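Quick question: what would this complex look like in 3D?
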Amino acid sequence: MAFVNWLKRNLVVIAGLVTLGYLLLPNVVVTVFSFNQPKGRFNYEWQQFSTAAWQDPCGVADMCGSLSVSLQIALWATVGATLLGTMIAFALVRYRFRARGAVNSLIFMPMAMPEVVMAASLLTLFLNMGAQLGFWTILIAHIMFCLSFVVTAVKARVMSMDPRLEQAAQDLYAGPLQTFLRVTLPIAAPGIAAGALLAFALSFDDFIITNFNAGSTVTFPMFVWGSAQRGTPVQINVIGTAMFLVAVLLVLASMVVSNRRNRQKA
Amino acid sequence: MITVTNKTDHGGDVRLTGISKTYGSFTAVHPLDLTVPQGSFFALLGASGCGKTTTLRMIAGLEEPSSGTVFLGDQEVTHLPPYKRPVNTVFQSYALFPHLDIFENVAFGLRRRGIKSVKKQVEDMLDLVQLGEQARKKPHQLSGGQQQRVAVARALINHPKVLLLDEPLGALDLKLRRQMQLELKRIQTEVGITFVHVTHDQEEAMTMADTVAVMNAGRVEQLGSPTDLYENPQTTFVANFLGTSNLIEAEVDSKTNGDIVLKAGGAGKLVLPEARCSAPTTTGGRVLVGVRPEKISLTHADEAGEIPEGRNRITGRIADSSFIGVSTQYVIDSPVCPEFEVYAQNIDRDARLVPGAEVVLHWNPAHTFGLDAAQSLLAGTVDSAGIDEQAAV
């Protein structure tokens, strides 16, 4: 009986922990196996603890090159998609123009379309245009499919903005540019940041569309896929774990900053 | 920075000439002329949808007039964008910048005009509105009344020629609103800037403003001091919107040295000073006779003989009475009007004045006003205001 009562009281916590475990277990495995010293070419069975891979993360041929390509593409795709997406979101919320309804629904097409279909069609398009496949075709494709996510995130924020704030800014001697930089942009910033983060993650991660349109360029996901045919170097786990850690650190840092800010204000 | 204002300075005059605003086929403001003198506290009063806020926004530059001109002092500002007008607004929902703290909110206007050392001015202004302690808080951490004061400080710090207030007290509870009314009045007297205040609350307008313009359906019905509007309403809308009025239809019987004698249904003769009648009066023509409920005395029918000569009288029966402390409000069923309202001060209460009692209502003819009979008796009452509002939406 006492146990049942205890269970009742702690059910929410238990459910939370189980869900968290379910989410984190794959990450734990990735991390643990980054310290493995496999016998063959495949890092699928635990052999013995080693920090060799961590000491030489770029020890595998071409891997860090592909990582750098991926980071560059993700960065530029984020910049491009965030710029365009923010402008589209403002246009859709603030202005009435002829094709507004159509743009509003068509902007979600890339989200709904099966990725592999889009990848194939894009390749057709690029080939017919005579475009040289590589960095630029990947970037163009990534900006395209990241756009809808940025638009969605920013639009939600802009819609909830009180237009009177901008009127108040104008009333207080801020011209159009000042109003945008001092009031509109800072208030829309959380939406824009969310859109940008999403774009970065999606672009860095993308395999299908990239694989179709990459030509001879190799991104990090393509490298992992390619090496999985012949053997999986431990360094892949090292990079994966490092990315995970960076993300966790960023989240923690932002939590600490906002906590401290709130405590100062209170 | 503070310019000394004197009575002959017209730099803060607001002059609207023939200004109007139409949205498609809807006319929000009919061509209207208005002059707000420098240094005055001016109220635009009306029900929602009457065009008062649109008028205010045209002065601020947030709305482009469809016709007419806006002058601030000698400067025409009709087509100037808001950020080039020496005018600041306190918005209805305050519109404080949520991402900036109180200090930065107040400093916003100064910084945009390129003023570098703002600290002293901002601190002084925050002290004026008693928020010196809250400078580093964000707007959402303040109460409604405090936010309201920040909005006032943020506008006033720029020493505008005119401060526009758009229902600034609408979101506050009654007690706080009373307090802020006095506070705003104090600030206005202290800084001497022209205030143009938009409100739907007649008591607020009367408490604060030197001059009130009553607006209805995109037009100014009447303009004057609160006393003038209350004592001498020119239209049924003003008579009903500002306080309560008893209105009776009557026929012009004759005129004698400055007085009009009227016949009203079963009430016998009523006297109305000609100067207090805004309607054309030809013998046999009809006018509306009005009198405020608190001007009327009630006498029990048994003592009708004791009422002095020369007072207007109406007989009736008390239909209802409600005691509200300072006064007792009676509703009298009379031949000329089934719901005649009388407010009697509770000084010497006559125990016989209970529902069902026969009474004589009498008042000094000088308190009677006359209106054009061609208007709706109900204009400006609660019932018709509801209809206006729906039409405006």
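Answer marked as accepted. The radius of gyration of chain A is 23 Å.
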